[in-house]
Amino acid sequence: MTRRIERAMALLRRGDLTVTEVCLAVGASSLGSFSARFTELVGQSPSVYRAAQRVTPAAAVPACVAKSWLRPKLCR
Asked: Do the Cβ atoms of 54 and 15 come closer than 8 Å?
């Protein structure tokens, strides 16, 4: 599921898909479980995450740095 969330984060950063479309694109079975898991791993809901990325684009950051920085971290 972590890989699916990473992919969802990339799709949400693009901004051309709705949250529901992203949910289906990464293979999640329901929007509710996807949103709950996304929020648990990322710390923000998918719609809040996408809105925050529009305000602060990571275009100036190299992709290798962005991947490691944006990867969800498990807090246990």
From this structure: yes
Q: What is the pTM of this model?
A: 0.69
DSSP class of residue 58 equals: -
pLDDT band of residue 66 (cuts 50, 70, 90) is: confident
39 near 47, Cβ under 8 Å?
Answer: no
Residues 71/41, Cβ–Cβ less than 8 Å: no
Phi and psi at 53, nearest 5°, equal -70, -30
Q: Residue 41: exposed, middle, or buried by beta-carbon count in 10 A (0-12, 13-18, 19+)?
A: buried
67-70: long-range pairs with CB below 8 Å, 24+: 70/6, 70/9
**Residues in contact with 7: Cβ distance below 8 Å, sequence separation at least 6, in sequence order:** 25, 26
